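Postdoc handover notes: sequence design on the structure in folder B. Input tokens:
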């Protein structure tokens, strides 16, 4: 692994078994996550953002999906590199890493919260398991974390079950749980969607603190351009299971190269008014997953006239570096 990176994902493919056949949830995803950076991951619904994050956590639904190809290299705190695609998903190695060195804020809070245990017990368990603290200290730390995500009266709240929380509070409790062990890598999947703007700002601050103190790296998945603009150092854009563009934030906002990114970014207003800005909808339909266009999957919707015949090349379009650090998967730039 490159010493600059904490995570290197190479040509990752995940297949789902459905009644109608195999669906490629992601289809050759490659990117690096550098130490201490925030990488924004954006793209239309269904493009594979959550599947990418779940693959890294090795939490894909076992019976219906598999990692069909690719590698996920992770550098542990102790300096060891591991390919997470080959570790036993129930083994002690991934259990030491998951929730501790790599933590995730899930799009759906109940994915990570058990309905059977109190919020306090769940956060304390993570702390005791990974940080080796005793029960008393773990409880203190859990209360601190709930305070930090602005859950008032945390000491009492800790004894409640998830169903007793409102949706927004559950999301904050899950954020507290994800941050309680100071992970090196935080996968944040729409972390602040259900929260009001003030609390959202406080949560983002909390993530920045984690980053400043522990040099943590964050993958920030969101449809909210305001959040991306505030947090991301670099942005990766996904379309139909592939990364189509990746560059530093300014480049993606100001000079996007891929016609898909150009479309997504069209609605970026002046700074300051970004808080509520969602990604721009692109005309045309996302292709049927059982009938993915050959070559560039975006070509049927691509607004560029006189598309090169290469767009339809069944061997696909490679990701090329158009300038240092700026990768694009589009025939307009291939050679
Ligand atoms: N449980 C599943 N069964 C079958 N296919 C699935 C399943 N989960 C995901 N997929 C496939 O993987 C693709 C990517 O899904 P994913 O959840 O990663 O999208 P996403 O980018 O996170 O979307 P959103 O923005 O709506 O959260 C889907 O379009 C679908 O084809
Ligand atoms: Mg998702």
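Designed sequence:
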């Amino acid at each position: 692994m490159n010493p600059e990176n904490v995570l290197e994902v190479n040509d990752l493919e995940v297949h789902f078994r459905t009644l109608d056949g195999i669906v490629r949830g992601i289809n050759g995803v490659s990117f690096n996550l550098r130490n201490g950076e925030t990488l924004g991951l954006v793209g239309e619904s269904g493009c594979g953002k959550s599947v990418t994050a779940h693959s890294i956590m090795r939490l894909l639904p076992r019976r219906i999906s598999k990692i069909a190809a690719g590698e996920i290299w992770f550098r542990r705190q102790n300096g060891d590199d591991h390919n997470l695609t080959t570790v036993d998903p129930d083994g002690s190695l991934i259990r030491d890493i998951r929730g501790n060195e790599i933590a995730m804020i899930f799009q759906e809070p109940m994915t990570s919260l058990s309905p059977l245990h109190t919020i306090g017990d769940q956060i304390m368990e993570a702390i005791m398991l990974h940080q080796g603290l005793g029960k008393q200290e773990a409880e203190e730390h859990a209360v601190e974390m709930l305070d930090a995500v602005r859950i008032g009266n945390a000491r009492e709240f800790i004894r409640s079950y998830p169903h007793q929380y409102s949706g927004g509070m559950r999301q904050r409790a899950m954020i507290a749980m994800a941050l309680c062990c100071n992970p090196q890598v935080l996968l944040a999947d729409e972390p602040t969607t259900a929260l009001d703007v003030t609390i959202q700002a406080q949560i983002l601050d909390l993530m920045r603190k984690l980053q400043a103190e522990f040099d943590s790296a964050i993958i920030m998945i969101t449809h909210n351009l305001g959040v991306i603009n505030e947090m991301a150092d670099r942005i990766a854009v996904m379309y139909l299971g592939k990364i189509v563009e990746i560059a530093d934030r300014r480049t993606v906002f100001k000079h996007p190269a891929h016609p898909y990114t150009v479309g997504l970014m069209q609605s970026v207003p002046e700074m300051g008014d970004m808080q509520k800005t969602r990604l721009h909808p692109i005309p045309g339909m996302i292709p049927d997953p059982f009938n993915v266009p050959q070559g560039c999957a975006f070509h049927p919707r691509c607004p560029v006239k006189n598309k090169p015949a290469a767009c339809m090349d069944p061997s696909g379009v490679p990701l090329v570096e158009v300038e240092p650090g700026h990768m694009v998967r589009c025939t307009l730039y291939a050679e």
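Context for whoever picks this up: The mean pLDDT is 91. Don't rerun without checking with the PI first.
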